[in-house]
UniProtKB/TrEMBL annotation:
<protein>
    <recommendedName>
        <fullName>F5/8 type C domain-containing protein</fullName>
    </recommendedName>
</protein>
<feature type="compositionally biased region" description="Polar residues">
    <location>
        <begin position="11"/>
        <end position="27"/>
    </location>
</feature>
<dbReference type="InterPro" id="IPR000421">
    <property type="entry name" value="FA58C"/>
</dbReference>
<feature type="region of interest" description="Disordered">
    <location>
        <begin position="1"/>
        <end position="27"/>
    </location>
</feature>
<dbReference type="InterPro" id="IPR008979">
    <property type="entry name" value="Galactose-bd-like_sf"/>
</dbReference>
<feature type="domain" description="F5/8 type C">
    <location>
        <begin position="219"/>
        <end position="367"/>
    </location>
</feature>
<feature type="domain" description="F5/8 type C">
    <location>
        <begin position="373"/>
        <end position="496"/>
    </location>
</feature>
<feature type="domain" description="F5/8 type C">
    <location>
        <begin position="1"/>
        <end position="92"/>
    </location>
</feature>
<dbReference type="Pfam" id="PF00754">
    <property type="entry name" value="F5_F8_type_C"/>
</dbReference>
<feature type="domain" description="F5/8 type C">
    <location>
        <begin position="606"/>
        <end position="748"/>
    </location>
</feature>
Amino acid sequence: MEDGEIPNDKVTASSEQNANTPAKNGRLNYTSGSSWCAGTGDTNPYLQIDLQTIHIICAVSTQGNSKADQWVKDYKLQLSTDGTCWRDYMEADYLSLLVTLLCQKGLVRGLFGFSTHAFFHLWKKFIIMLRYDCIFLSQVLRGNSDRDTTVKHVIYGVSTRYLRFLPQTQQGGVCMRTEVFGVQQKRGELHMIDHLNCLVWFLSKCESCMFLNYYLAVCEMEAIGLATGGAIPDSSFTAPSYYDNRYKASYGRLNENNRGWAPKTTTNPADFLQVDLLYEYIICSVATQGANGIKEWTTKYKIQLSLDGFTFFTYKENNIAKVFTGNSNQNGIIKNNLQEFASAKFIRFWPTAYSGWKALRVEVYGIIPTKDCTTEAIGLANSGIIPDFSFTASSYYDNRYKPSYGRLNGNNRGWAPRNTTNPADFLQIDLLHKYAICAVATQGANGINEWTTDYKIQLSLDGTTFFTYKENSSVKVVVNKSNNDKTSGLINRSFNRIKFQRRTCSEKHGLGFIRLAIANSKSLFMEYLIIVVVYDAVYQLRKFDTMLHFYNKLQVFLGNVDQNNITKNSLKEFSSAKFIRFQPTAYNSWKALRVEVYGIVPTKVCKTEAIGLASGGAIPDSSFTALSYYDNRYKASYGRLNGKNRGWAPKTTTNPADFLQVDLLYEYVICAVATQGANGINEWTINYKIHLSSDGITFFTYKENNIDKVFPGNSNQRDIIKNNLQEFASAKFIRFQPTAYYSWKLLY
């Protein structure tokens, strides 16, 4: 809506107040005139959006009228696939899932609500095992309370073409600006709509098998940020009462230096500490401490959860309200894992037993929705997504082996070059957009014993200048060690930003073939989601490190040893491309490949997602180190954007190796960096480089076009200068190295 991709004639309404308030103005952040406003006599107003094709909807956002004090305070949604038959958007008591299953007997569609948990294990006949209880409610979504604030709601299990916003109550007039977040549903695919949380659905290569996968270990380690120095602001902490100013609700943070939270009395069994987590999370664990500096703590407690801040339910296990074991002293941290997944944006800690007084300092652990990048096919297997003309090659054997036949699982032979003697032969694909590639998959020829046993890939942004993909500065060769027939597939995991990709075989069996498809997520889902996807893919790569080995000093992937099995491997280092080439280097009988590539479309969202180095962010002081610092006014930990201290400065200006280093705690895809000068004094860095590392030991200098990138820094002490990285870089540690400065090297 906001970017105009949906044309004006696809945005309609039940009525319009006047010519200045048409439906087409109902777009998020539209400010050129009034928003859409319904006619004053319209008793059943709605704003309707035609998405033109079926989409899976993940979230919606609303604003009021930017030109007047008019907004919708709450609303409902209606959905339709044909524009004629409409249904209300409904949610179960806890979680609703729409699962569309294509089974052997036809199309089966089921709507399931879960207040406890569900486990799906579908074999060839899709036997479904569930434990559930359903209470479905037509949802009234909270709208706006001012003109311009954006209010977003995550939507569950929605597959629709048409969407209606139905205002229920309003202030000043029925006026709205809206946005819809989702992904186009592709024809012929099985879609399993998850809760956009750590429940990660995936479809196996066996088209009759589906599984539900939990990333429990990761989830239980992910602190949301309630602890001191975390990402959750003081305003998120509330309580019905607090004892005095030493025990405010906002002091209820794990490791808080103040007392913590305590209620006014110990006699009210309904007292609680409530936290607004800002986003919806799957809650996996909770942790508590007692009061700081006094012998008061909570020995038992329950938790209550809510999606909207109004309706709360008590967390249960085995259908019984769970009483958690709390603390036995004032400072020890007791962490409890939740056995049942719980989705919440709001959480309440409800003391039920205590020592000295009900007192709490808390943290919550959970994760935001994610999908596994390595399961997101870009669509080479589908000519409706990547057209035939995107496939080119250095040569092809004959009309049975055209480049466009190089699609994974294709019914044609696949691609094969004219002969096996040219080491430069390649299959090239224009992916149409830039992608972050996280995996590649290959097969041999269809119907004949010919396959490629290892290959290189080459990448390009412009289709002219290609570079060979490397790991640890060595050319990466993908070697097939796992399959022994022509149809099995090997999947090579990677995470590279590319638009074009060339693939070249390195060992042959029979005539050389490539059939391929590339995976991605073109969905916006939630603004926050794309970064999580990127991070999750990086994390997943670590699991495959044992699959990698060196062959003649070249790090190799698993390639093919037969014609049909699919082999998948990961690329560990990041690069940007629009084209990809597959270049065979070894083969059985002939160079033969059918391939798939997996990845996501990089978006501007990445560059807006601050990791949390700024003042009040999630990165602790202990993560900041430096080669030196000037004095206690310029410590490394003061190098936070918008900090109240001076910032970081080295001992002298004469050491060119001085740097400010930050441990980001997790591995990230770095998309942008920002700097300021000193606070309160005319000192700043004019130019700098950055160095990146995954282990904190081996650092590499960030480059663009194979040249060390020197970033433009600041021209005064206060302005924030942000620089976007043209090449994606994976790092857990980052160093800022000043190369030019005004008055003194100084960084926020």
